[in-house]
Amino acid sequence: MSEFYQVHPDNPQSRVIKQAVDVLYRGGIIVYPTDSTYALGCHIGDKNALDRIRRIRQLPDQHNFTLVCSDLSEISTYAQVGNSAYRILKAYTPGPYTFILKATPEVPRRLMYPKRKTIGIRVPDHPVAQAILTAMGEPIMSTSLILPDQEQIVDPYEMRMKLGKLVDLIIDGGACGLEPTTMIDLVEGVPQVVRVGKGDPDPFV
Questions:
Q1: How many CA atoms does the CB half-sphere of 91 hold within 13 Å?
Q2: What pLDDT band is residue 62 in, cutting at 50, 70 and 90?
Q3: Widest CA span in the chain
Q4: CA nearest 111: which of 51, 22, 166?
Q5: Which of 71, 97, 110, 111 is such that its CA lies 20 to 30 A from the CA of 63?
């Protein structure tokens, strides 16, 4: 059974954050709150953990995974960011957006969208997610917590019932929304809305 911790959504306990980081570095999977939905996360270099997340969500090979970063300074290591893309990122992060960019060689190939060699980049505006990222000192490989039947779970206790044997740690940070991030493709330089979610798509239309 997975470990289960409640944290204050605005001032999470440091011991729980340390526990989450320890689980990630040991190759585990965590469920954690963000400014859109709850998410599944693992260490970016751990293939076994990634495969487990694929099985939990029954994801195809073509799925666009996301690197959740603490701030803009991390992004250029993992994504090719031109001047126009940087201005957009600076204006709309942190926030409930995922931006699709060309990946750099620092990104493991198994995380990239196969044909386009792209990666999703996201900077969440949530104290719990930010605390984990700061303690990690590197991005987390992440995807929204949506089950194969497209069910989204918002109650952490229900998460424990349904995912308790599939993940290693569930962090209950209170209520999150049902809407995923709004996804914006910046690969060609001109923003294209790929998915409408919590973030306002109007600036990119």
A1: 10
A2: confident
A3: 47
A4: 51
A5: 71
- pLDDT for position 64: 77
Query: Any idea how long the chain is?
Result: 205
Ordered structural domains, the chain, with CATH: 3-204 (3.90.870.10)
Quick check: 199 and 97 in contact, CB under 8 A? Answer: yes
Residue whose C-alpha is closest to residue 182's, from 204, 197, 193: 197
Residue 32: its H or E element: strand 30-32
> Helix (H, G, I), strand (E, B), or coil: what is residue 89?
helix
Distances (CA, A) of 182 to 10, 106, 107, 185, 194: 23, 25, 22, 10, 8
Q: Going edge to edge, which strands form the sheet with 118-122? A: 3-6, 169-172, 30-32, 39-43, 140-144, 66-68, 118-122, 97-102, 182-185, 192-195
Per-residue model confidence (pLDDT) at position 203 = 95
Could you tell me the pLDDT band of residue 25, with boundaries at 50, 70 and 90? Answer: very high
Which residues, in sequence order, are bridge partners of residue 31? 40, 170
The residue assigned the tokens 């969500």 is: 57
Q: 19-28, 108-117, 153-162, 167-176: lowest mean pLDDT where?
A: 108-117
Burial call 15-31: b when 16+ CB within 10 Å, e when fewer: ebbebbbebbeebbbbb
